[in-house]
Specification:
Length: about 170
Amino acid sequence: MSPRLLRFGYLAGFLTCAALLGAAYYFEIVLYMEPCPLCMVQRLATLLIGIGCLLAFIFDGFRWMSRLALALTTGSAIFGAVVADHHIWIQHLPPEDVPACGPSFDYLLETLPMNELISIMLHGDGNCADVSWMFWDMSMPEWTRLFFIAFAIAGLIALISSWRRGDRKS
């Protein structure tokens, strides 16, 4: 794969993440759709992917820096896909098996130590079972899972390409 195409891909990845985060905030601020804990974790994964893409774009001429950025991108995408998959699983549970709804994220952030907050956010709650938006018969977590899988595949391809182009400056 040509270095110019990869560099364009890094920038496109960053802009895609910016658009995804912009859409998430549009849903929250304009449409008043409060994000659940798992939505917040998926936003974090999207942010980390975007940062990784931006760093890969900036440090493209430096072999190890760009590889670390691509590893961040790929790892964040895999993490995001796992979280989105868990979210989708909760959304498809029978109503009697859905976990109880918890307090708001702001309240949790103010009252809990960080390790408990992270545990609760990764587990999800009854708020995560609500499907408040669908497009082409797919919920938000189903769409984000597709994006995460695409970013993971693209990140792996870019990493492999980076290893094959070993003649770059360090």
